Amino acid sequence: MRSQAQRRAALESGWRAERHVETLLLRSGWRVLARNWRGGGGELDLVVARDGSVRFVEVKARRIGSGDPLQSVTMSKQRRLRGAAEAWLAQADEQLDECAFLLAAVMMEPQRWRVDWLDDPI
Questions:
Q1: SS3 53
Q2: I need a labelling partner for 113 at 20 to 30 A (CA). Which of 3, 10, 60, 103 fits?
Q3: Whole-structure pTM value
Q4: How far are the Cα atoms of 4, 27, 63, 99, 115 from residue 122, in angstroms, in the given order?
Q5: How far is CA 56 from CA 44, 64, 85, 96, 97, in A?
Q6: Can you list the positions of beta strands (E) in 51-97?
Q7: What whole-number distance in Å separates Cα of residue 47 and Cα of residue 89?
Q8: What's the rounded Cα separation, in Å, for the pair 39 and 28?
Q9: What angle do CA 65, 70, 73 make, to 5 degrees?
Q10: How far apart, in Å, are the Cα atoms of 1 and each of 4, 6, 7, 15?
Q11: What would the pLDDT profile of 42-80 be if each residue is shown by its tens digit?
């Protein structure tokens, strides 16, 4: 069982990873429509748009040696993400040509962070 300090450190690392991913997406021409949006029984870390495309971004971060971040996107998590995405779309004002999920797997290495992107894995 994690201590309160460990939970707090994990939340801080997750927040930093989300900001890092957001910065990379902004540099690639995406604009942020929502952060930590809750609805439909789930939460979307980021909702971004570019050229009529929307991505529902799930950020998963791990330190080197603490496992594969992709393994934490279970079927249950995928259902919650789909529910949240459907709820977001139901209230969206955006004109959309397409929407998909984008998984950002952040490996928090000591010297730099590596991000592996999986477009529409859910």
A1: strand
A2: 3
A3: 0.86
A4: 32, 24, 23, 12, 18
A5: 6, 25, 7, 13, 14
A6: 53-63
A7: 10
A8: 27
A9: 130
A10: 10, 10, 10, 21
A11: 999 999 999 999 999 999 887 766 666 666 777 898 999
69-109 pLDDT, tens digit each: 666 777 898 999 999 999 999 998 877 889 999 999 888 77
The Cα 111–Cα 104 span in angstroms is 19
Q: Are 33 and 55 in contact (CB under 8 A)?
A: no
Top-level CATH class of 4-119? alpha beta
116: CB partners within 8 A, 6+ apart: 104, 105, 107
Strand, helix or coil at 40? coil
Beta-carbon count within 10 A of 57 CB:
23
